[in-house]
UniProtKB/TrEMBL annotation, chain A:
Domain of life: Bacteria
Assigned keywords, A-Z: Signal
UniProt KW Nucleotidyltransferase keyword: no
SUPFAM superfamilies cross-referenced by the UniProt entry: Periplasmic binding protein-like II (SSF53850)
Cellular component terms per the entry's GO annotation: ATP-binding cassette (ABC) transporter complex
GO molecular function: transmembrane transporter activity
ABC-type glycine betaine transport system substrate-binding domain location: 43-310
Record CDD domains: PBP2_BCP_2
Classification via Pfam families: OpuAC
Signal peptide stretch: 1-26
Protein name per its UniProtKB record: ABC transporter substrate-binding protein
From TrEMBL, chain B:
Localization in the cell: Cell membrane; Membrane
Protein name according to UniProt: ABC transporter permease subunit
Keywords: Cell membrane, Membrane, Transmembrane, Transmembrane helix, Transport
Bilayer disposition of the protein: Multi-pass membrane protein
Protein's organism: Streptomyces guryensis
PANTHER family: GLYCINE BETAINE/PROLINE BETAINE TRANSPORT SYSTEM PERMEASE PROTEIN PROW, GLYCINE BETAINE_PROLINE BETAINE TRANSPORT SYSTEM PERMEASE PROTEIN PROW
UniProt record similarity statement: Belongs to the binding-protein-dependent transport system permease family.
One annotated Gene Ontology cellular component of this protein: ATP-binding cassette (ABC) transporter complex
């Protein structure tokens, strides 16, 4: 009880003085940092981590370098892709290191409100597609064309997909047109959402272990390709603008150069940290190397980052200069 | 009070009771006979008629866009919500700084000394061990973040709860108005609270704290009101006769008399705040919950457990310490001196830690449990998943459960004409409650249809029904065993304690590893989560059966099975009904989160809403979850409600 008393006194004092200080001024909630930032006078940076492992690798390496080479304290918060834009705009996170393309959000926050600044490319190109395991392609070489998928739909039947074949999708937060695609390409498939990438990966590993057939929404760069070799199924080719109407999409996903974004204030006043994050740029192989250490060898992100940093000095030295 | 109303119907002769039930059903059949042909002629369709839905997507989307665009310019946000948000951020920051300044040694010492004063030496040692374990697991900073958020949320909840409770305790009219609202708030899944606060405050700590307050304040308000109302009439009259004014009477008699309830309220508020603080990591709360959430993203059960264990330890410690405070509430004023010594000792330890330069938990003192845990999980998936001789693998069970139970129940529910679903709901709710509860249940179900999410809601409902059935079979069996054997109950108790305080998230990944993706693992997680409460209530109910009744049955030569069937189970009926009610409420809470592991339906929609920033979809799904929760509660809630499960 004693502690409760003293903290409550402290809290009321702080809140009281806040009200006195600000008086009748406006309180703009879009300009609030995380309460866990800048504790004890340390310079701190808050990074958004998205739920997939590649994004964790970016953050782990950036965090390691910020902490050990630049002397910052780094907080990470897991936020999904779209809400992360809002959090970034409000300054609750300082940077997103890997964005897969959200034109609406970009227009709203970067061009209209100017609360978010572009941070340059990550150096990695992302691609989403439909994949089948390579062992299945060896049995049925023509399965890699969407036109033949209906022929094989009985292979992919599960309890969840009813009488149709199962197309497994991952987290609801990821960019996907799969329901429209199945519909518009008249495929005898049912989209089943695993609900999270974690659930999807677990499921894929199980299938792979028993060499069972599966068809899945997947994307590169992804570390799982090293554990479960997969081949992409060809969809009708992507043309500029073929995916503007979400209900009528009938083409493949584009290749997206992944982008970084910084909170506008942080980009201006963030000092070394902001400069470093703008320069942060690495290759798909680098990212995969770290991802594999985290997700498969079960190293902590920090250990994985240390390992990578120790062996790639020339790459990261350029980011610090 | 509760016992009087609960036992009244039982005192009635069975014939009369049946008679009344028959009357109700007859009346309902009459109403149905008139209304159904009318409704069917107009909107003849199996599913909810499209003519009766209201599409809220457009207005909700534009509202959400308007809020985002005007959050930094509109006066409502600048002068009202902005201050709330600011106050939350600054208070959490202040508490966090205090905790960091005290250092790990200071916080541990303070926690242990408070526990010592309140609850004795054993709990003090336990508290210290719990804090040290948080550090050893490498979770010190995350624990402090969660603690900072909790301190603020609990303080605000207590203030809000006491104010509401005082109002309800002193005014009959307010009590009548507030009680149904508070009752309802307690049965809603935590997940449903997240979306509205995100809509207004955006992702982050302010939204998390406010969602926690909304979730955790009701028990405080309920118990405060209960305590004030339950005060001994004679004492109050004595105070009155001494000529005390109303405020004096409140401060010197009614509040002190309600101390036990107030402390119980505090205990429940803390437990609920903790469980919400973990779930709120989905909307950017940070701290331990966020570590669990991040670990689950990479299927890292070990790391999830490393963050989950501190949550469980915090929960157990907070529960025991506040519980002990409640039990001691009757004792008269103790001297302040030991408290001063304790405070001085804590400050001394904190200073010593500071001088030694050991404020942060040293990195070299951490112990990695993730790896061995993951090895165990890998072994489990490798050997139990499928192809186990005779019994088949877990994946096969999940497949059978989906094909033979979930699918038929779902297509059965979705195949029913919409009006017959409403009729069944009405009949069940009316049989067990009053016409008022029946009306609420029917309206809630109808609201789901109007919102345009009839099909996914029935899908969720089918999962709830299947999971509840499994929970009840397992729970009643275990509960009966626990009631019959003291030894078994002693073994079971710590297991139940731990399971009841684990964050719901942690259950999800092992079930995916065992059962794959889909509705079966969601149902499995729900069963595991709801089981402890059902077991506990069943065992308690059976144990509280009048020993005299049991003795007389025994003397008449009844076998143990006969005793159980003919004496214990009928007499424990209220407890068993409560167990059903709790089972339903808890199962719904987890089935909804099951959207994260392929549960689909409403849970998926609300996850999707949060994840894609598509608040329209999310809010509609959230509203449907609320309605479903309301309906399920009313349909399973007999007569009086009792105190809820703590966490």
């Amino acid at each position: 009880m004693r502690r409760r008393m003293s903290t409550s006194v402290a809290t009321t004092a702080v809140v009281g003085s806040l009200v006195l200080l600000t008086g009748c001024g406006a309180a703009d909630m879009t300009k609030q940092a995380s309460p866990f930032a800048n504790a004890q006078g340390a310079k701190s940076v808050t990074l958004s981590v998205q739920s997939w492992v590649g994004a964790q690798s970016n953050v782990a390496v950036a965090q390691y370098l910020l902490e050990h080479k630049l002397g910052y304290r780094v907080d990470t918060v897991q936020v999904d892709e779209v809400p992360a834009w809002d959090a970034l705009s409000q300054g609750r996170v300082d940077a997103i290191l890997e964005d897969w393309g959200h034109p609406d959000q970009e227009k709203r926050y970067v061009d209209d409100k100017k609360t978010i600044a572009r941070g340059g490319g990550l150096g990695v190109t992302g691609h989403i597609g439909w994949f089948v395991p390579t062992y299945l392609v060896k049995q049925h070489p023509d399965i890699t064309n969407w036109k033949n998928l209906n022929k094989y739909s009985s292979l992919f039947r599960t309890a969840e997909s009813g009488g149709k074949g199962q197309l497994m999708d991952g987290s609801p937060s990821y960019v996907t047109n799969d329901k429209a695609l199945v519909n518009n390409l008249k495929l005898d498939y049912q989209v089943v959402f695993a609900g999270s990438e974690a659930a999807q990966i677990t499921q894929m590993k199980q299938f792979a272990k028993e060499k069972k057939p599966f068809l899945t929404y997947w994307y590169s760069p992804q570390w799982l390709f090293k554990k479960v070799p997969m081949t992409e199924v060809k969809l009708p080719p992507y043309k500029e603008g073929c995916d503007t109407d979400p209900a009528k999409v009938a083409c493949a996903y584009p290749h997206t150069p992944l982008q970084k974004y910084l909170n506008a204030d942080f980009a201006k006043k963030g000092g070394n940290a902001a400069a470093f994050l703008k320069k942060f740029k690495w290759s798909t192989e680098d990212q995969n190397e770290v991802s594999l250490m985290i997700a498969d060898q079960k190293l902590t992100p920090e250990q994985a980052a240390k390992k990578w940093v120790d062996s790639h000095a020339s790459t990261w030295k350029a980011w610090l200069s | 009070m509760a016992t009087v109303t609960a036992s009244a119907p039982r005192a009635l002769p069975g014939g009369l009771l049946k008679h009344r039930a028959a009357q109700k059903l007859l009346l309902l059949a009459l109403v149905a006979a008139i209304l159904v042909p009318l409704a069917n002629a107009r909107w003849a369709s199996g599913s909810w008629p499209a003519a009766l839905t209201v599409d809220l997507t457009k207005p909700l989307t534009s509202a959400s866009n308007w809020i985002i665009d005007n959050r930094d310019s509109n006066p409502l946000f600048l002068y009202f919500f902005g201050y709330i948000s600011n106050a939350v951020v600054i208070s959490v920051h202040a508490v966090y700084l205090v905790l960091l300044a005290a250092g790990w040694a200071g916080v541990t010492a303070l926690g242990a000394l408070v526990a010592w004063r309140v609850a004795g030496v054993r709990l003090a040692l336990g508290t210290a061990a719990a804090f040290l374990a948080c550090g050893l697991l490498g979770m010190w900073v995350a624990t402090m973040q969660t603690l900072a958020l909790m301190v603020v949320a609990v303080l605000v909840s207590v203030v809000v709860g006491v104010v509401l409770g005082l109002a309800a305790g002193l005014s009959d009219r307010l009590d009548r108005g507030l009680r149904p609202v508070l009752d309802t708030m307690q049965v809603l899944p935590a997940y449903a609270y997240l979306l509205p606060v995100v809509l207004v405050f955006g992702m982050g700590v302010p939204a998390a704290v406010l969602a926690t307050v909304v979730y955790a304040a009701p028990p405080m308000a309920r118990l405060t009101a209960l305590g004030l109302r339950g005060a001994d009439k004679e004492v109050l009259e004595a105070v009155d006769s001494l000529g005390a004014t109303a405020p004096q009477r409140l401060l010197t008699a009614r509040i002190p008399l309600a101390r036990k309830e107030l402390l119980l309220g505090l205990n429940q508020t803390i437990m609920m705040a903790l469980s919400m603080a973990v779930i709120a990591s989905v909307i950017g709360a940070g701290g331990l919950g966020d570590r669990v959430y991040q670990a689950l993203a990479s299927v890292d059960v070990g790391a999830a457990l490393a963050a989950g264990i501190p949550i469980v330890l915090l929960a157990v410690v907070l529960d025991r310490v506040t519980g002990a405070a409640g039990e001691q509430a009757g004792e008269e004023s103790r001297s302040l001196r030991p408290w001063l010594y304790a405070a001085a000792a804590a400050v001394a330890v904190a200073l010593a830690g500071r001088l030694a330069g050991r404020l942060d938990w040293p990195d070299s003192w951490t112990f990695d449990i993730a790896e061995p845990v993951n090895r165990a999980v890998d072994w489990m998936t490798a050997h139990l998943y499928s192809g186990v001789p005779v019994v088949g693998g877990t994946a096969d069970w999940a497949g059978h459960f989906t094909t033979w139970v979930l699918n038929p129940v779902r297509s059965g529910l979705q195949g029913l004409p919409w009006w017959s679903v409403l009729l069944v709901v009405a009949a069940l709710a009316w049989l067990i409650g009053t016409w008022r509860t029946a009306l609420t249940a029917v309206l809630a179900m109808a609201a789901i249809g109007v919102l345009g999410v009839w099909q996914p809601s029935l899908d969720t409902l089918s999962q709830v029904l299947a999971a509840v059935a499994v929970t009840l079979v397992l729970g009643f069996a275990t509960g009966i065993a626990a009631a019959r054997s003291d030894r078994f109950e002693r073994l079971l108790r710590p297991v139940l304690d731990v399971f009841q305080t684990m964050p719901q998230f942690v259950y999800l990944i092992p079930v995916v590893a065992l059962f794959g993706v889909g509705r079966a693992p969601a149902a499995a997680a729900a069963v595991v989560y709801a089981l402890p409460a059902v077991v506990r209530i069943t065992a308690q109910g059976l144990r509280q059966v009048d020993p005299a009744a049991l003795e007389s049955a025994r003397s008449l030569g009844a076998t143990p099975a006969q005793q159980l069937r003919q004496v214990q189970l009928p007499l424990a009926r209220p407890a068993l009904l409560l167990a059903v009610n709790q089972g339903v409420v808890l199962v719904l809470a987890v089935v909804v989160i099951g959207g994260l592991v392929g549960g689909g339906a409403l849970g998926y929609d609300s996850v999707f809403g949060l994840a894609q920033g598509d608040l329209a979809t999310g809010l509609v799904a959230g509203a449907a979850i609320v309605c479903l929760g309301l309906m399920l509660d009313r349909v399973t809630q007999p007569t009086e409600r009792r105190a809820k499960k703590g966490a």
